[in-house]
Design a protein that fits this description.
This protein has 302 residues and is of the alpha/beta class. The protein folds into two domains: 136 residues, Rossmann fold; 150 residues, Rossmann fold, CATH 3.40.50.1370. The strands form two sheets. Strands 7-6-5-8-9 form a five-stranded parallel beta sheet, with helices on one face. The structure holds phosphoric acid mono(formamide)ester and norvaline (NVA).
Length: 302
């Protein structure tokens, strides 16, 4: 059997993704009623973090614990990865010991190289280009609150970053319309945009973009690794805040999402963050349930 990886949403078919979201909802219900599901006894997840994390680390670790398995946190600070051991060699060695590897890193090519040399499933836990695990949680959250996202209008406001690129992939895989509202010079990946031009468009004016949206999503203006651009970006994105004025233009029952961590007063107003239309806390919790479904799919199969 060939090893399956999850480097982008395109690694799973639309049917597999739909099943995975349904399974995440089911696993969440099982966990809430205290039903044991220890399918990972004796299995270990290696977790390589080259960037900071709260949600991703905790959700993967807790997920493995709830499955009766184990996880190992590996940072470049105290492994040979940080001392220049080739990524290919690290992949060969680690995958002879652990049962799956989760990686958060900078260049997307790093995780592709790792996957090419890994004999166990590799999961993208965020690169500079994509954050597919977050999309699993976001779609689960939408489905729980509003039913299927198919045919809905989703509006991305702000930076055309890793999250935005994954939203473009999600528009294809989950069949929804995506409008990206970003300032000039901060567009998402051009090749992705071109590939999905039948369902993804750019609207520079966020007030026009938000019209009748079923979901408004944003993210920080300066991602990890872009800290030095903060001041320039604050200027460029000044008109791209999701606030009550913007939410008022969306559909009446529109939801607000943000992968977190959020900067109130920058990409989102404090009012919107704490409004009942905001489902950011469910979104964060669902990282746990959606990734459990992913781990089960990749490591055990169903
Ligand atoms: N949303 C997200 O990935 O959060 P962390 O950076 O805390 O993992
Ligand atoms: N775009 C953000 C997402 C953080 C979860 C970043 O890459 O820092």
């Amino acid at each position: 059997m060939t090893v399956r990886h999850f480097l982008t949403l395109q690694d799973l078919s639309p049917a597999e993704l739909k099943k995975l979201i349904d399974r995440a909802i089911e696993l969440k219900a099982m966990q809430k009623r205290g039903q044991k599901h220890d399918i990972m006894c004796g299995k270990t997840l290696g977790m390589i973090f080259e960037k900071s994390s709260t949600r991703t680390r905790v959700s993967f670790e807790v997920g493995m614990t709830q499955f009766g398995g184990a996880s190992i946190f590996l940072s470049p600070r105290d492994t040979q990865l940080g001392r220049g051991e080739p990524i290919e060699d690290s992949a060969r060695v680690l995958s002879r010991m652990v049962d799956a590897v989760m990686i958060r890193t900078f260049a997307h090519s790093t995780i592709e190289t790792f996957a090419q040399h890994s004999s166990v499933p590799v999961i993208n836990a965020l690169t500079d280009d994509f954050h597919p695990c977050q999309l699993l949680a976001d779609i689960q959250t939408f489905v729980e609150h509003r039913g299927s996202i198919q045919g809905k209008k989703v509006v991305w406001v702000g930076d055309g970053n890793n999250m935005c690129n994954s939203y473009i992939n999600a528009a294809r895989q989950f069949d929804f319309e995506l409008v990206v509202s970003c300032p000039e010079g901060f567009e998402p990946n051009q090749a992705l945009l071109a590939r999905e031009s039948d369902r993804v468009s750019i609207e520079r004016d966020p007030l026009k973009a938000a019209n009748n949206a079923h979901l408004l999503v944003t993210d920080v203006w300066a991602s990890m690794g872009q800290e030095e651009e903060q001041a320039v970006r604050e200027k460029a994105f000044a008109n791209y805040q999701v606030n009550s004025e913007l939410m008022a233009l969306a559909a009446k029952d529109a939801l607000f999402m943000h992968c977190l961590p959020a900067h109130r007063g920058e990409e989102v107003s404090a009012e919107v963050m704490d409004d009942p239309q905001s489902v950011v806390w469910d979104e964060a919790e669902n990282r746990l349930h959606a990734q459990k479904a992913l781990l089960e799919f990749l490591m055990v199969g169903y």
